[in-house]
Amino acid sequence: MSLYRVHFKWKEKEVSLSARQLDLTHPYFVSIKDLVFPNKPKLIFDPQEDELRRAFSEADHLMIPFQTVSLIEELNDSESSKIMQFPNGKEEEETDE
User: Fold this and answer.
1) Cα atoms in the Cβ-side hemisphere of radius 13 Å centred on 38
2) Which of 19, 39, 57, 59 suits 31 as a labelling partner, its CA being 20 to 30 A distant?
3) Taking Cα atoms as reference points, which of 12, 20, 61, 24 lies closest to residue 37?
4) 13-37, pLDDT tens digit by residue?
């Protein structure tokens, strides 16, 4: 099963959330469901991760405006990342170099 990591701007900061389901069919939003937060005990406290957990951990479904999204990664079970092309509404020309 794939895991998606969405990087976006929130409160003037670049943040990322991980989720099991991602839907790019809405014309103005990236739909994120089944958020995944790390549950491993840590020795070092990350205030940004804690803020995201408090803000989004009880959400069942997030709709993030596509203008704020900078990158979407698809991670497989082995945790290697694959960058997905984000549809920006423009047709891009392919060039052979």
Assistant:
1) 11
2) 39
3) 20
4) 999 999 999 999 999 999 999 998 8
